[in-house]
Amino acid sequence: MLIRIGKTIIFVLLASALALVQFSLISAWPGIFSQLNLILILLIFTLFFFGFEPALFLALLFGFWLDIFSFEFFGRQLITLVLVVLGTQWILKSWLTNRSLYSFLLLILIATIGYNFLTSGLLFLTLADRGFLFLSQKFFWLALVEQSAWSLLAALLLFNLVASMTRKLQPVFLEKKPVL
Amino acid sequence: MIKIRRNKTFLTVIVVLGLLFFLHGVKILSPLENFLLSLTKPFSGHLYSLGNSFNQSYSRSRDKTDLNLKVDDLNREIARLTVNQASCQEIESENQKLHNQLKFLSDHNFKAVVANVLAKEALAETGEQSQDFIIDKGSRNGLRVGLGVVSEEGVIVGQVIEIKENTAKICLTTSSGCKLAGAILNQTKTQGLTDGDLGLTIKMNYIPQLEKISPNDIVITSGLGGNIPRGLVIGKITQVKNESNEVWQAATIEPLINFNNLTVVSVIIP
Hints:
The complex is a heterodimer. Chain A has one domain (2-164): Arp2/3 complex 21 kDa subunit ARPC3 (Orthogonal Bundle), CATH 1.10.1760. Helix content of chain A is 71%, strand content 0%. Chain A is built from 6 helices and no strands. Chain A has helices at residues 2-25, 38-50, 52-69, 76-94, 101-126, 138-165. In chain A, helix 1 (2-25) crosses helix 3, helix 3 (52-69) runs antiparallel to helix 4 and helix 5 (101-126) runs antiparallel to helix 6 (138-165). Chain A is globular and about 75 Å long. The termini of chain A are far apart. The model of chain A has no long low-confidence stretch (mean pLDDT 86). Chain B is an alpha+beta fold. Helix content of chain B is 33%, strand content 29%. Chain B has helices at 2-25, 30-62, 67-93, 104-107; strands at residues 111-121, 132-135, 148-150, 156-163, 168-172, 180-184, 191-197, 201-208, 218-221, 233-241, 248-254, 264-269. In chain B, the strands form 2 sheets. Chain B has a 6-stranded antiparallel β-barrel. Residues 96-101 of chain B have low confidence and may be disordered. Chain A binds chain B through residues 16, 20-21, 23-30, 33-34, 52-53, 56, 60, 64-65, 68-71, 74-75, 78-79, 82, 116, 120, 123-124, 127, 131-132, 134, 137-140, 143, and chain B through 9, 13, 16-17, 20-21, 24-25, 33, 36-37, 40, 43-45, 47-48, 50-52, 54-55, 58-59, 118-130, 132, 134, 162, 164, 167, 169, 260.
């Protein structure tokens, strides 16, 4: 019991530190580097390798932290991250049949696109002075492309890292033995 | 069995989300949020400085030589000298009632709150990249919406647009919608409203045709509105759009410093 509580506390602290890194450190990086969405990458990584419930818990934690840092309406990140986890879980269960690199890449790409549309859409719906629809903004599409590229690169690295540490992700080939 | 467990998870998430929204809405969460923000502030500041150093070294390394560094230093020097020059012109025009920019705060009994930049906020809605800054001082430190924010050199960089107890959001003078009452340091001291232009420059529209303005004229804050004192340098006119068949003319203003390098700013409380 104590070990479980300790693990949960470490998990919460690590998640909080990551939220802080995303909010303060990555936002200060130049141009394309600032588009690295570490939180989303780790969320999908958790969902893919550790399951639905830890990912959902992480989404709530990340969302809460980002929402208290942010000056936009409270709940924007919470709702977005939870919906992204629910959506990717549904895709993972209903459409993807294995735990291959291609599944992981596809899942992270869908999650990145979904996250960007949801977060900008929610903001657009709640802004009093709406201005231009985000879909017509060059910055939105540029950020989406840059973020997708980062996510795919990170997915590639993470998957290979995990595959090198465990045998579970190694491909299995069935050999046809000659009948005696 | 799995279905029941999944339904239970959904229900838990909905309850947690509902509770969070409710508790935030009725401000019960405020003490916890403020405590967490105060707790993370020092880390945020350090992380931002770290990220900013990477930002600066990255931009320097993009040039093969140290040219960038030298240009930065020279720009800083130009900004400092232009601020001094602008202050001198102001002193002259107001019968030496105002002192130079460096002594501005103490000589005029303006309180200034020094703040660290915690983060940049990028919004797709604005169509601009990272134009709002978040600083580590808020209403608890006497800040309020509308106050002017100046850089280390004394150049006005923006305005407080949103406030929380421990943090505040500032828009940069180059951000669309960041409007400041300005005055051009020409013969007639033309007044107008400046507005950011796509996060790159500042524009001043609706200047009557009769007013004589020219490139290199310095634009300062006019002091109208009461929140921002007169005499803070906004920038330098680089282009004047003047059509003979138009009623108004417009000016493009360039800020004197690079806003990407901001880590410490001062909020002036008049």
